[in-house]
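Milestone M4 deliverable, item 7.
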Amino acid sequence: MASTDPKIFDGEVFDAALRGSDNSSPAQALALSRAALRDGRAALRELYQTGANVDTLLHRHAGLVDELLTRVWALHRSLLDPKINIALVAVGGYGRGELYPHSDVDLLLLLERDTHDRVRPFAEAFLQFLWDMGLEVGHSTRSLKDCIAESKKDITVATNLMEARLLLGDPALFAAMQTKTGPAKLWPSPKFFAAKLAEQRARHARFDDTAYNLEPNIKEGPGGLRDLQMIAWVTQRHFGSARLHDLVALEFLTEKEYRSLERGRRLLARLRCGLHYLAERREDRLLFDHQRTLATDMGFRDKAGIRAVELFMKRYYRNVKELALLNEILLQHFQEAILQRGKAKIRPLNRRFQAHGDFLEVTRRNIFERHPFALLELFLVLQQHPELKGVRAATIRLLRENLRRIDSTFRNDLACRSLFMEILRQSRGITHELRRMNAYGVLGAYLPVFGRIVGQMQHDLFHVYTVDEHTLFVVRNLRRFTVAEYRHEFPFASELIQHVVKPERLFLSGLFHDIAKGRGGDHSELGEHEVITFCRRHGLSDYDTRLIAWLVRRHLLMSSVAQREDIHDPEVVLRFAQQVGDAERLDHLYLLTVADMRATSPSVWNVWKDRLLTGLHTATLRVLRRGLAEPMDVEARIAGLQAEAQQLLAKTSVGVERAAQHWTRLETEYFLRHDADAIAWHTEQITGTAASELPLVATRYRPEAGGTEFLIYSPDRNDLFTVLTGGFDRLNLTIMDARIHTTRFGFALDTFVVLDHAMQPLRDARALKQLAQAMREQLLAPEPGRDFLKSVVPRALKHFPIATRVGFSASHSSAQTIMEVTAQDRPGLLHQVALALQHCQARLVTAKVATYGERAEDVFFVTGQDGLVLSGEPQRCLQTEIERRLGAASGKPGESVTLL
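Output delivered:
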C-alpha cells in the first residue's frame, strides 16, 4: 500500500468518526469519505504550492486513495459472497503508486473464476460509492482467464497488468495473474519491445515527430512522460526491474545520464501536477491558458527584454530535447540487447567508422580525441550509407563527451569547414542529419549562433514551433522540392528547383534566415551579417555570398508584397522586380518564401497563398524579361488580354461584337486586375443575363484563383459592399480577395475569392449553386452580418490580445489611399470594416486579407466617393469608427495611426 501521513489522511480519526455515525446510513459514510478525500487533496495542493518533492506528492495522493478504498471496500463487503475469491488491484499509474491530482484511479476487480454475475451487485454499489465521493474511476472486472486472453491480444492490457499492485484480497490469486501474464507466458521481451517501439513511433508521428509544438503534450509528445514510462516498461519486462537506476549497473546508462533523466522526469511530473491544479481536471497539454502562470510559479521573470513565459518554455523544450536523446540512446541499447542479442556483424566503412549491424560506431574509443573532425564526419558517413539506421548508443555517448572539442580552433579548421559544406551538398540525408546534429548538440556547438535559438519559442499563434525547429523545417521543405516523390505537393517549386545550380545556397539561406531571432533589432539584417561571416569562413565565392546574404536579408519581401500589396498593379510589380533584380534571385526567393511560410505552422499554407506567390513570380518574371527600363505598354497588354479572352469565348455563345460592346463599358483598371480566363468568364455570365434577372451572382472553383470565385453584377449602391460582406459573414465564408469595379453605366462588377471555415476552397457544384442563390437573396433582401461582439473567440486567441491599429499611406499610383487594419482575427471582422467605410462615405477599390496566427493584417485600397485620395477628416473618421467596432475585441485600441 502506498504511503500517506496524518496531515493527508488520519485513519484513526476517520475510523472513529465512522464508528460514531450511523453505520447503516450510506449517506453519512459517503459524506465522511467525500470530506476526507477533499481535505486530503487540499492538503496535497498546499504541499505542492510550497515546493514539496513531486514524487512524494504523487505517492501520498495514491496513499490517500488506498486508505479510502480500503474502508469503502469494508463498507460494502457484506454484499459479496464470502465464497468468491476476489482481489482489488490497482493498475496503470495508480498501480505504480503515482497518482496525479486529477488522474483516473484505475482499478481491476480480479476474479479467480467466471463469477461476474454474482459479483455484479457488489461491484456496482462499490464503484457508485467511489464516483459519488469524487473519484474518477477507470475499472474492469476480469477473471484470471479473462486477464490472460485480453493481455494476449492487447499489449496495452498486458502493460497495465505489469504495473499492477495488490490493494486487497488473495495474494496467491494476484501472484497467479502476474505469472500467467508475465514474459514467460505472454509477450516475451523481444516481441514486447518491438511492439512498444512501433507504438512509440506511431505516437510521435501524431505530433509531427517534434516536441517543439506551441502547446506541447507533456505526457504523449516526443520526450514526454510516456517515453520515460516506455523505458521503464521495457526494463521491467526484460530485466525484471522497474527501477531505472538499475540500468546504470547494466551499463545502459551512466550515472550522469541517469541523474539527467531523473531531473527531466521530475520537471515534467511537476508541470503535469501544475496543469491538473490549474485546469481543475486532467490536462496534459501545456496550453497558453496555463503557460504564463506556470512560468511565474516556477520563478521565471522577464529578463533582458525576453518574457518570462519564453524563458520558461525554452527550459521546457531543452529538457524534452535531452530526454528524447536519452530515450534514443536507451532504445538503441535495447535493440542490441533484446532484438539482436549480440549477433550484429561488424563491417568497416573507413579508418574511423564501422557498421555494427545496422548502426554506425567509431572503430576506437579515442577517435574523437585523435581526430576531432570525425565529430562532423560521422554525419556525412550516415548520409553516404543510407542502409544504416542510426548511431550506436556508445558512440552517441562518446560524441556528447567530446562536444567540448568543437571550439574556435575546430571551427577554423579547413577539414571541418569542408565537411560541413559537404554535408549540405549531399544528394540525400540533409534534413535527417541536420536534425540529428541538432539533437546531439553538434549543430549548436559548430554554429554558436544556432545554439542561441535552440528551444527558443515565439509566443504567438503564427509560429507553432521553436525557432530552431522551424528553421530545420524550412531546410526540409527546400530539400523536399528536389525529391521526385513529393513533386505533386508543389509542382511549380519542384520545377523551379531543377534549374537551381547550387541547392546548398538555398539550404544555407534557410538555415540562417531566422538565426538572429530574439536578439532585438531587425533579425533579417543581423542574420545577413552572420551568414556573410559564415560564407567567408567556409570559402564561398563573393557571388554566392552576396546571393545568400541577400536572401537572408530579404526573406520576408515576397511574402509581404504578395499578401499586403496589389500585385495586379503594374507599378507594384515593377517596384518588386527592381528590388529583386534578376530571374535567379526571383527563383531563389520564391522557393525560400514557400518553404518558410509552409514551415511556420501546418495550417498557414493554403491554395490562396500558393496562388498569390505564383502570380507574383509570374508577373515579375514577365517584367524582368521585358527589361526593367522598358515600361509596360498598357494598351498592348489590354489588347492581348482581350484577344485571349475572345479565343476562350469562341467556345461559348458569346459573339465577338457582343463581348467587345460589353468591354467598352469597363475602365482600364478592370483589365489590369484580371487575367484572360476571368475576363472571359465575367463576360459570358454578364452578357448572358437579362436585365430582369439582375442582380447576377455567379460562382465557380478555379484552382488558379486559389479559392472559390464569386462574381457580383448589380446596379451600384452605397451600401453594396456592406451587404455583400454581411452575406459572406452569415455564410461563414472568409473573403481573401475583393476587387470592386464600377462600369461607365453605373453597374457594380465586384469579384471575390473566398475560402470556407477550414480555409479551403469550396468545390462541390451543388454547394456553389446554393451559395450563389443565398448571396442573390442577400442582395434582394439584405440581412445584417453576425453580431461581432457576440462572436465566440477561440480559446487560444484569448491569450493574445492584439491592439487595433489603423494606418494610412499613399499608393504608388497616387490614385488611391492604402488603409491597413491590424486587429485580432475573428469572424465578421471584414464586415465591420465595410460598415465603417459606409459610415465614413469611403469607397473600396480592392481588399487583401492576411492572417498571421492570432493577428489579422488586412489592406484596403480606398478612395472618397469622388474617386480621389482620402486625407484629413475622412481618415480620422475611418480610424475612429474601425477602432470603435474592433477595439473591444482586440485589446487596447488605437496604439498608433499615420495620417497623410
